[in-house]
Write a structure and sequence with these properties.
single chain; 229 residues; alpha+beta; nine-stranded mixed sheet; three-stranded mixed sheet; 12 strands; 30% strand; globular
């Protein structure tokens, strides 16, 4: 557990954990924040959960099961969940980040918050000389956005209630990309997925990438606070 000095944010790096366990953790912290707001109590803590999951496919509340490519997938958990977005895969080698934040505390709306999540990934990629960007029609972070082979490296799906967030993003550092063949990722036809390992054609220090991402994310949040003061 790590505490950000300038903001009431606790960073929890859980390592490899089952989806249900981390979902339960999210709901606990989410409900604490939400109840504090509803009862006008001071909010003492926000959270950023970092983890990896064993193989799991999740479908958002508005997702379409027709985006599942195979009739069954032994050894892979399947969950219908309450975030936005469509279908995605989580697995070892993928950094999954679940911020549980009161956006009002940071002077953020939902659109600005998603932009910060994307920007933190883009800035992290820059440390490794990988150029990430956005595609207007889709959330997340992409490579070769104006080229012939746009491919997604980070997916985003969130839930908010009274400006309190849960769920978040999945950043492909070194997962088994073959697992994405089980689905049509995010329901987007004709565009692929990639990872840092694939792009760099070399092994990646997972912990180093995680630390850089958190640093970028916190600096972007700090900037958003400064702009509201």
């Amino acid at each position: 557990m790590e505490r950000s000095e300038s903001k009431p944010i606790t960073i929890l790096n859980l390592g490899l954990r089952g989806y249900q366990e981390v979902w339960d953790n999210q709901k606990q912290y989410f409900n604490q924040l939400l109840n504090a707001k509803l009862t006008s109590q001071p909010i003492s803590e926000n959270y950023i959960i970092l983890c990896q999951h064993p193989h799991v496919i999740t479908l958002g509340k508005s997702g379409n099961e027709s985006n599942i490519q195979v009739p069954q997938f032994p050894g892979v958990e399947y969950r219908r969940i309450d975030r936005g977005g469509d279908i995605t895969y989580h697995g070892p080698g993928q950094l999954v980040v679940y911020p549980i934040l009161d956006l009002e505390m940071f002077g953020l709306g939902l659109k600005s918050y998603i932009h910060i999540l994307e920007e933190a990934v883009i800035q992290t990629l820059q440390h490794y000389n990988i150029t990430g960007g956005r595609i207007k029609e889709f959330t997340g972070v992409w490579l070769d956005v104006n080229g012939d082979n746009p491919r997604k490296i980070a997916a985003i799906g969130v839930k908010t209630s009274r400006h309190v967030t849960m769920h978040g993003l999945a950043f492909n550092i070194e997962p088994d990309l073959n697992m994405f063949d089980l689905i049509i990722p995010c329901g987007i036809v004709g565009k692929g997925v990639t990872s840092m390992q694939k792009e760099l054609q070399s092994s990646i220090n997972f912990d180093e990438v995680s630390e850089i991402f958190v640093k970028c994310f916190l600096e972007l949040i700090e900037t958003s606070i400064s702009k509201t003061l």
